[in-house]
Design brief:
Length: 203
């Protein structure tokens, strides 16, 4: 799961710049593009979770940002999606991927430890558990950039290329890529903690 999530996260980070420039014609077109680019064509549970998680993330972020419709209808000033939308998409993707993976584990009766809360009531609790515990663990590239003293420092922290500091379309995808191991590690670490913790605390 870790390797698959990291690879998918890196592919999503690489797609952010073009989405900022070009956007998409519709939600369906955006889902199709990102599921293909980010989810890949692997056949494992984790691969399938990445594809379903990407589709779910697009829907969730569109609900968070109704202004996405303007970009998809050609109303955006630059023709693409704003960076706050893309940073939220990046953050939500990791949570939705984990949620879809846990759904698959429960549905397929895979012999894998899952949080007790989910195992006892999978249909009613997975979405709530993910929303409450997972989303905020994934770092937001825009927030990470804003916390730096300036964008150049953020890019340097992300080990970006020299000269990219003034171009968010170049800098933020690199920051996002650098944050992938942190995002995946925190989220999968939480699952482990929930599994090995006291059952009473999870019930």
């Amino acid at each position: 799961m870790y390797d698959t999530a990291c690879a998918a996260g890196e592919r999503l980070a690489g797609a952010l710049g073009s989405l900022a420039a070009e956007g998409a014609e519709s939600e369906d077109a955006l889902v199709a593009r990102l599921v293909s680019e980010v989810g890949g064509d692997g056949g494992t549970l984790a691969d399938a979770a990445a594809r379903r998680g990407m589709a779910a993330a697009v829907r969730d972020v569109r609900a968070m940002h109704p202004e996405m419709d303007d970009a998809m209808n050609g109303g955006g000033a630059g023709g693409g999606f704003a960076w706050d939308i893309l940073c939220d998409l990046y953050q939500v993707f990791f949570a939705d991927m984990v949620g879809e993976f846990l759904r698959s584990v429960v549905a397929e009766h895979v012999n894998l430890a899952v949080p007790v809360l989910i195992a006892t009531d999978p249909e009613g609790r997975i979405a709530d558990w993910v929303a409450a515990k997972v989303v905020d663990l994934a770092p937001n590239p825009c927030e990470e950039s804003a916390e730096a003293t300036d964008l150049a420092q953020a890019v340097d922290t992300a080990q970006s290329v020299v000269g990219a500091a003034q171009d968010p379309s170049t800098a933020l995808p690199k920051i996002a890529e650098s944050l992938v191991p942190q995002a995946v590690g925190k989220i999968l670490g939480l699952i482990t903690e929930e599994t090995t913790g006291e059952e009473g605390a999870a019930a």
